[in-house]
User: Fold NADH:flavin oxidoreductase/NADH oxidase N-terminal domain-containing protein from Shewanella surugensis.
Amino acid sequence: MNTLLAPSKLSDVEIKNRLIMAPMSRNRATHDGLATVLMATDYAQRASAGMIISEGIQPSVQGQGFMNSLGLHSKQQRDS
Ligand SMILES: Cc1cc2nc3c(=O)[nH]c(=O)nc-3n(C[C@H](O)[C@H](O)[C@H](O)COP(=O)(O)O)c2cc1C
Assistant:
């Protein structure tokens, strides 16, 4: 039996298969850490394959490790 492509469970979460995309910094947010259409497209293109662990989101200005990464410490970022 092909267990890689068979439906499975991660704790209480039903998953389509065991293909899980590791988090990868895409650097597709704006310089101010706002989400972009490019980011939505990137995830949408991969969504049918399996589970995706998204990239990191900086919780503060000091927490930013890379350029053009997503932030979640301002109202503008939250709303983007
Ligand atoms: C927030 C976050 C961002 C990451 N970004 C990248 C990345 O851009 N490129 C990359 O090769 N690995 C990135 N990694 C590490 C990968 O998720 C993965 O752990 C690494 O490629 C090693 O994979 P392996 O254990 O299957 O060899 C990131 C990890 C985290 C937590």
Summary: The mean pLDDT is 94. Residues 15-75 form one domain.
